[in-house]
Amino acid sequence: MSGCGCGCGCETSQTNQTIETSATDSRDYLVAGMTCQPCATRVSAAVTAVPGITGVTVDLAAGRITVTGAASDGDIRSAVTDAGYQISTS
């Protein structure tokens, strides 16, 4: 069986991805639908593009992201939903 079901054509894998520069404020979120590495990369890129974000850690197996930076909760949520995923506070 191949693919995660999100339509990206990948092989399902569970890895962690971290993009960090400096820490100020850290928050955790659950991301529904993030099932493969391309999904994790898409979510990470969307959140990293939010002004004020200094780091994003993705735990694919747990479906969780940890966001570091001074961006608003609303901006983070919008970035994830605009990327095609559902987000909630963990």
UniProtKB/TrEMBL annotation:
Gene3D superfamilies from the UniProt entry: 3.30.70.100
Residue stretches making up the HMA domain: 25-88
UniProt superkingdom: Bacteria
InterPro entries (alphabetical): HMA_dom (IPR006121), HMA_dom_sf (IPR036163)
Transmembrane segments: none
Gene Ontology terms for molecular function: metal ion binding
Designated name of the protein: Copper chaperone CopZ
Family matches, as PROSITE patterns: HMA_2
